[in-house]
């Protein structure tokens, strides 16, 4: 059983989701359409920045940040540009869920603000990938719902 409060545990879970997203974008980059290389690089950089900011927030709260796993399971084989885009979309779904949980469990204004910003950024990236994949509508009414 964890000694962390709900807010801190939600941040740890969000950090784990960010680690997984960084891993996923490595795979996305390997299989993605070369025309999307800049988009993939920007999204990967955004997840790395969010990961680093989350580690800093945990340290400021005197919580030891977890280390990334050596590797992460991906939900389906990635073999081409389409499945790479689907994996990117799934990474954004997963981080949206994690950041929504932070919002729901936050006790402090700064943590809630961080969660809202992170959820909004993930939802925008998800909408972009859904548009690329031809999903209509490309946006979701309530992003981050499990």
Task: Describe the overall structure.
The protein has 146 residues and is an all-alpha fold. 68% of the residues lie in helices and 0% in strands. It has 4 helices and no strands. Helix 1 packs antiparallel against helix 2. The longest helix has 26 residues. It is globular, with a radius of gyration of 15 Å. The relative contact order is 0.18.
What are the salient characteristics of this protein?
single chain; 4 helices; 146 residues
Provide the fold topology.
Elements: H1 6-31, H2 37-60, H3 81-105, H4 109-132
Helix pairs in contact: 1-2, 1-3, 3-4
- Write the H/E string, N to C: HHHH
**Global geometry:** globular
Q: What's the mean pLDDT score?
A: 95
Task: Estimate the strand proportion.
Answer: under 5%
- Kindly provide the radius of gyration, computed on alpha-carbon positions and rounded to a whole number of angstroms: 15 Å
Structural class: mainly alpha
Largest sheet: none
Low-confidence stretches: none
β-strand number: 0
Q: Summarize this, please?
A:
With 146 residues, the protein is mainly alpha-helical.
């Amino acid at each position: 059983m964890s000694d962390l409060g709900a807010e801190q545990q939600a941040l740890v879970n969000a950090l784990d989701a960010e680690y997984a997203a960084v891993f996923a974008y490595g795979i996305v980059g390997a299989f993605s359409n070369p025309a999307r290389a800049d988009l993939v690089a920007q999204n990967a950089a955004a997840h790395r920045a969010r990961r680093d900011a989350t580690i800093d927030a945990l340290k400021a709260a005197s919580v030891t940040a977890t280390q990334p796993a050596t590797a992460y399971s991906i939900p389906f084989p990635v073999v081409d540009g389409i499945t790479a885009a689907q994996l990117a979309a799934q990474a954004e779904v997963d981080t949206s869920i994690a950041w929504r949980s932070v919002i729901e469990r936050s006790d402090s204004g700064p943590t809630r603000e961080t969660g809202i910003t992170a959820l909004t950024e993930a939802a925008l990236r998800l909408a972009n990938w859904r548009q690329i994949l031809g999903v209509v509508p490309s946006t979701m009414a309530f992003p981050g719902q499990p």
